[in-house]
Amino acid sequence: MAETQSSVKEVIPDIGGDFALDEGVIAVLPPGSRVLECNSFDKSAWTRTAHISVQLSDGSSTQYFMKCATEGGRIMMEGEFNSMSELYKLAPSFVPRPHAWGKFGRANPVTHFFLCDFIDIEKKLPEPVAFCARLAEIHLNSQSPTGQFGFMVPNCHGKILQANDWDPNWRSFFTKLLVSFFQIEISINGPWQEYEQAFEVIVSTVIPQLLDPLQADGRTVKPCLIHGDLWEENAAINRATGDPVVFDASAFYAHNEYELGTWRRETIKFGKEHFDQYLSNVHPSKPAEQWDDRVRLYSLKFNLAHMIGWPGAPLVREEIYNDMRYLIRQYPGATAGNLHEDPKGA
């Protein structure tokens, strides 16, 4: 974002700190606010971030966290604002309070931003009991505004646009989401015949056998609000309260078990203790005997997102392929190459 940084410094040269705050951001601060300092803060893969110190009209001070992006920034920032807003309604101590999203006034290239409370955090994995209890509360207490799966605005997983249009059927919704990510992954990392054949079988044979039973024989799946990208880099501890806190949400209304798909990835630090603690709050959907296989299926989407965001990771692609082959063996109906490897269990 060198161009954006240069242009905003020309517009507002007298703001303190090392990050020139654009007039578009200042406009959404509380009336009478005076910006004291704006500093570049932490690291972000797809965006630029800042810590903003402000004096309010009554003389008190407060702090904000800002994220901004250029290419694709409007969808990313509007999507994150709405994602965090939905979570904040249900669990205000679990997420930073979102304030606004908008557009820089004079930046070139066009730049959009998201603004929320600044929370001083300790970057460590939250302990399972309190963390999973908060997460379960969101899943159990949330209500989809349409009664369907999806979200009210487009949003992104990282920088990847999610297919999140409303759909009354979970199998249909998840299939569209997974297919869209697989197509992007292939376009970036290139063809692999056996891998693509296995994915065709996943879509045509495995997904119906795993997800249709959730909504069969009188059973229903509640669309639950999920964070959408809940790994250790998006969770921490609030230093002031000691409570767990999450951020960088890419939320939508989904089957609650989908949230756990990312925990199943090989490199993720959320592990058995977090799985067990979550399941002590929310029992597996029926048929319960398919719980582990459903979570394995859901993990495919998160590994595909990794392959899109960080191309050229052969071990992750092999993990996807091995998981697909395992599921195809468990739910036969077609064949896709030599299905002989058994990847890790949850």
List the helices and strands and how they pair.
Elements (H helix, E strand, L loop, with lengths): L1 H10 L11 H4 L7 E7 L7 E8 L5 E9 L3 H18 L7 E6 L8 E6 L3 E2 L5 H14 L14 E2 L2 E2 L8 H20 L3 H19 L12 E3 L8 E4 L5 E3 L5 E3 L17 H10 L9 H19 L4 H17 L16
Antiparallel strand pairs: 1-2, 2-3, 3-5, 4-5, 6-10, 7-8, 9-12, 10-11
Helix pairs in contact: 4-7, 5-6, 5-8, 6-9, 8-9
* Element pattern in H and E: HHEEEHEEEHEEHHEEEEHHH
* Unreliably modeled segments: 1-16, 334-346
The helicity comes to: 25-40%
Percentage of β-strand residues:
15-25%
Class from helix and strand fractions: alpha+beta
Major beta sheet summary:
5 strands, antiparallel
Total DSSP helices? 9
What's the overall average pLDDT, rounded?
A: 90
**Whole-angstrom Rg:** 21 Å
Shape: globular
Q: Cα distance, first to last residue?
A: 40 Å
Strand order of the largest sheet: 1-2-3-5-4
- Say how many strands there are: 12
Quick structural overview:
The chain has 346 residues and is α+β, with helices and mostly antiparallel strands. The chain contains 9 helices and 12 strands.
Can you walk through the features of this model?
With about 350 residues, this protein is an alpha+beta fold. Helices cover about 40% and strands about 15% of the residues. It is built from nine helices and twelve strands. It has helices at about 1-10, 25, 75-90, 130-140, 170-190, 195-210, 270-280, 290-310, 315-330; strands at about 35-40, 50-55, 60-70, 100-105, 110-115, 120, 155, 160, 225, 235-240, 245, 250-255. The strands form four sheets. Strands 1-2-3-5-4 form a five-stranded antiparallel β-sheet. The protein has a three-stranded antiparallel β-sheet with strand order 6-10-11, with no helix packed on it. Strands 7-8 form a two-stranded antiparallel ribbon. Strand 7 (about 155) and strand 8 form a beta hairpin. The longest helix has 20 residues, at about 170-190. Mean pLDDT is about 90; it is low at about 1-15 and about 335-345.
